[in-house]
Amino acid sequence: MKKITVRRFLALIAACFGCSADEPREPTTFNRDIAPIVFEHCAACHRPEGSAPFSLLDYVDVIARAEQIAFVTQTRYMPPWKPKRGYGHFVGERGLTDEQIKTIQRWIDEGEQEGAAADLPPRPQWETDWELGPPDLVASMSVAYTLRADGPDVFRNFVIPLPVDETRYIKAIEFKPENARIVHHATMMVDRSGAARRKDELDDEPGFEGMSFGEAQDADGHFLGWTQGKTPYAGSDSLAWRLEPDTDLLLQLHMLPTGKAEPIQSRVGLFFADGPPKRRPAMLRLGRKDIDIPAGASDYRIRDTYKLPVDVEVLTIYPHAHYLGTETKAYAELPDGREQGLIWIEDWDFNWQDDYRFQQPVFLPAGTTLVMEYSYDNSAKNSRNPHDPPLRVRYGLHSADEMGDLTLQVLPRRAADLPQLKRDFYRKWMLQEIDGYKMLIAADPADWDTHHTLAMFYLGSGKPALAFTEFELALEHNPDYVEARVNYGIALAQDKKLDRAVTHLKEALRRQPDFVQAHFNLGIALHMLGRGEEAQPHLDEVIRQRPAMAEGIERRLQQLRR
Amino acid sequence: MRKTIPIILLLALLSCRADRPKALDLDGYPVDPFTSDAQATVLLFVQTDCPISNRYAPTIAALHERFAPQGTDFWLVYPDPNETPDAIRHHREEYGLPGQVARDTQHVLVRRVGASTTPETAVLGPHGNVLYRGRIDDRYTALDKARPQASKQDLADALTAALAGQSPDPSVTRAIGCFISDLQ
Predict the structure, then answer these.
(1) With a CB-CB cutoff of 8 Å, which residues 88-117 of chain B face chain A?
(2) Cβ-based burial of A516 (10 A; exposed 0-12, middle 13-18, buried ≥19)
(3) With contacts defined as CB-CB under 8 Å, which chain A residues touch B120?
(4) Claim to verify: residue A150 and residue A30 sit in the same structural domain
(5) Is residue A126 part of a domain?
(6) Are B126 and A364 in contact (CB under 8 A)?
(7) Is position B130 within any domain?
(8) Which residues in chain A have Cβ-Cβ distances shorter than 8 Å to B145?
(9) Is the pTM of this model over 0.90?
(10) DSSP SS3 for B122
């Protein structure tokens, strides 16, 4: 127990002198004035099972840190809440009023008194197990991972199989870090490809490092995230997401070492909806992939916009930048010229990132322009700068690279508008991806895989000539890249450059004689040239390797004949 | 006549010393890192449940490994009177913290070197003179701002200087962490 010290005793006397004047005021006490503040605004994290490193529940807990509490509340470091107040209203907003902050300081100045037991409000209670009730399915990391004691943040991905034997619809997911002290932020994606599982199996360690989600995707337009102190979202039947058998959850944990080795084995609880959802949201991701910040630049800015083709409601918003980010702002320019604020973080902190759910969905009519504006500081003055001295930093997925994304979860007003919205957005997204891959190539011109990906994006956006150049570059840097050669062949054939297509497809086969896609496409191309006899052995080879493709070949040849 | 005055003074000083509060070891015996005859003595003000202080445990262990063999005494100073010897034993084991322990429940050492924060460090010369006081390194620039790696190894630099018989520069820096003034 903390004793009344000389300092506190003197403060008590001073407080008494102060209050004896005109307006007799009772001294500020923990039980009456402070406990309600810490119970409501601090204890969700600062409790024994919480994510913060110590509890703030009892008088003794609070007096043991009183001056630091005054400091962290006055500087608004605690309770953590980044978005600017009033510029967007979000579920779970945290923050103290100026009055509450002053009360804490006054309590200290008046001697940190405990007060009468009768004044103490009941202690808040938390569910000891699942906050949303018993889940329909519980899955967990198959083995525990041990976070090292020291060093910078760790981003690590874990594959959690979700065993269902028939298609299910998920309305809510509750994440249990099972070592809340180390997890700052968790993001979950859905992997139906098995790619993450294969990547995980490459070594014996549980999970794999990195910030990339690979093939995994968002859950039908839903954010599955967790941050410290966040209440799980109960969701709704009408907005559930589809879970097929044989799907993995890819869990990405952003962890901060604590000074000792820390084991972690997270769990998730899934809650089933009655049936398929009535409506589906879309994810719109604005941002720049051509970020290129000179070393030392202290105010580098990016901006991106997107004009909505249909009426939507914005449900959730998620700004994302790395350590150089200083400010993230997003707003909507309505067709009538008014500006509607969406989110504004004036002091961006990578460690406290989150997806923010609007208290009320924000309606934006067709013709609204979404705007995002971010700032970055790549000077030595930015103490979070990963490079010392500063280096040129470009777009990239590593934490020492930089990003500038704004993802909005939107629901079209009319469900039938979803395909139009997705198509329209896809075109914009494609251009953005092209910018990004151009940047990656600028940084590493010999990266044949990126040349190939860029070629495919050019094809997808109807720019075959640019695509051909990228195919050539991919093959120049890696002549054995038969997949690129076959895709190049297909693209040439589609562009009626059949002779060149045949040359590349034959070259692919010279390098890999059993490559079935090369046989197939060469067979088709030769048929298009009227060289059916030459084509036949290649198509026979396809059917020998893949009997199931026989029907497809027949259909393709019939199309050609017509 | 001239001789007696110093003797009286000395007696007064001695009796004063006996009454003065002292830092204690984990068994409750008084300890005084200032009487060490090592070439350099390091005091590390730490706390069992201060997040930043705990994050420095591996750094402290590495500094101990590097400088203890060169004749440096390491002291972990626990200024929180609420931390029991058992809690401290457990904490040292959990975080692998090396060095001797001083429970500074009355803040004798805190005042003597002017420490205000956990984690904070002081380097003493062979005569108990304070050569350096402040942060271990510059990893934290504010409670919510940390560099991925430290760019200045202040304590290591101060120790290197002290062991070479030189004065560390800077001799004072600002530590970031939990407030010792709360620990009464």
Answers:
(1) 94-96
(2) middle
(3) none
(4) no
(5) no
(6) no
(7) yes
(8) 383-384
(9) no
(10) strand
